[in-house]
Amino acid sequence: MTTVERVRGELSDAAQPVDLSGDQARAERVAAARRHRRRLIDLAIRVASLAIALTLWEIAAWNVDPVLFTSPTNVALTVYITFLYSIPSVALVPLIVLWAGFDTTAKVIILFLFAFFPMVINTYQGVKSVDPKLLEVGRAFRCSERQLWWNIVLPASLPFIVTGLRLALGRGLIGMVLADLYTAISGIGYLIVRTASTYQVDKMFVPIVTLGLLGVTLTALLRLAEKYVAPWTAASRDD
C-alpha cells in the first residue's frame, strides 16, 4: 500500500461518524444494575438489622420475669387483632373498591371490615375477663368444655359481646355510607353526594336524618334483645 492510499484510508475512517449509542446503552445498563444492586444491599441490611434486633429481644426475654418483660413472639401471638384494628379502615376503602369493583360485593366487604374488629376485640376481652373461680367450680363439678362455655363463659362475657355489637353497629353504618360514597352508584351515601353537589341542602338532610333514626332504632332493638337474652346485665346496670 502506497503512502497516498494509506492517507486516503485514514481520511475515510476519520470521516465516518463514530457510533456512541452502543456504548451509552451499555453504560446505562451498568448504572441501572449498580443501582438495583445497591437497593438490594440496603434492603438486606435493613432486614438483617431487624432480624438481629428481634433475636436479641427474644434472647433477652428468656432470663426476665414475664411480668416485667416479654418477648416479640408473645407479642405477635397476643395482639395481632389489635394490630389489624389499628390499620385505618378508611384508607383501605379505595383499595377494596379497586379489587372488588363497584357492585354489592365491595359494600359487603367494607361493612364487614368496619364491624368485625370491635365485635371480636370486645368478645375476646369478655372471655378473658371471666372469673377463674367460676371456671374452677365448673371443673370441680366435672363440667365438659361445652358446658363450661355455654353455662359460664358465654353468660359472663355477654355484656362485652353486646357492647361490641353496639360499636359494630355504629361503625357498620359509617362503613355503609363510605362504601356508597366511593362506589357512587346507589345507596344513602350516593344520595348525600348527589344532593350536596346540586346544593339541595333540604334533600341532603333526608338521608342524614334517616341514618340517625336507623342507628337509634337498631340500638334500641339491641337493648331489647339484651334484656331478653341476658336480663342480668340490665339488672346489674340499673343497680
Kindly describe this structure.
This protein has 239 residues and is an all-alpha fold. Helix 10 crosses helix 11. The longest helix has 42 residues. The termini are far apart. About 2% of the residues have low confidence.
Helix fraction, binned, reads over 70%
SS summary, helix count = 11
* Alpha-beta classification: mainly alpha
- What is the H-and-E element order? HHHHHHHHHHH
Largest sheet: none
The amount of beta strand, in percent, is under 5%
What is the average per-residue confidence, as pLDDT, rounded to a whole number?
78
Unreliable residue runs: 14-18
| Estimated radius of gyration | 33 Å
From the N-terminal CA to the C-terminal CA, the straight-line distance is 119 Å
Please count the beta strands (DSSP E, at least 2 residues each).
0
Q: Quick one: overall form?
A: flat
Essential attributes:
mainly alpha; flat; 11 helices; single chain; 239 residues
Condensed summary:
With 239 residues, the protein is mainly alpha-helical. It has helices at residues 3-15, 21-62, 72-78, 80-86, 89-100, 104-128, 132-140, 145-183, 188-197, 201-229, 231-238.
Topology of helices and strands:
Blueprint: H1 3-15, H2 21-62, H3 72-78, H4 80-86, H5 89-100, H6 104-128, H7 132-140, H8 145-183, H9 188-197, H10 201-229, H11 231-238
